[in-house]
């Protein structure tokens, strides 16, 4: 039943973070009644109490696992009248629900956590949510997002989902970015590092005989995304739906071996300067205790165009 409801119960305290403490001070957290609409075992409230940040709370869940949690389907009947909400909403991707023959609500979002988050934001001025780290790449609710804190420690006993702590307020002009407790900077500054190519070159992905190859996902040991000669990847491995490894067709006037070194140099500089934030987090921590990452093809195309334009 827990998988059907998209429930994952938190076991690690994500709130011992300077970004969260700054947000908690702004919303006067210790003096307000905190709403936990998807409370499960009420672990988040317990953690906040241990830190002296919660003096009053109201917790609800469709399947309570704690005597202080009231039974309520908060997606259908969301609690009203709360200024602050802190929660770990249910995660359930639409494609995963379909694959497992699970019921999925008729909503505009592709994951239940996005709908749950929307409910929280509609009803509360301040929201703190432990959600999939890929939220950063979804580019939604940015007008209220004030802090994005990537949590590299394993948050749950029963899943290796990459997760973040996303903090929202009434309105926000920029986003403070953290990797655990390390401050990375403002989103507006990191966006300046994105490839700026406005050229629309004839570059096609998932072409079995493509002259350029791309290993688009890190291995389990280290950051290993790289461009290679297309001939290093068997044509049989390429599918229309391929997202982790591909062959790319770029204009033949460029000599592949001459540009691969430059492409990988630019890619590695980009990853270092942006702390991998614009690459989608992938399930499982690498041995260096950072999440594996995937380079999406839209961003890869921009990197290729910018590199070719500079040659």
TrEMBL record:
Pfam families: Eco57I. InterPro entries: DNA_methylase_N6_adenine_CS (IPR002052), MethylTrfase_TaqI-like_dom (IPR011639), SAM-dependent_MTases_sf (IPR029063). GO terms for molecular function: nucleic acid binding; site-specific DNA-methyltransferase (adenine-specific) activity. Signal peptide: none annotated. Transmembrane segments: none annotated. GO terms for biological process: DNA modification; methylation. Gene3D superfamilies: Vaccinia Virus protein VP39. Residues 55-150 form the Type II methyltransferase M.TaqI-like domain. This is Type II methyltransferase M.TaqI-like domain-containing protein.
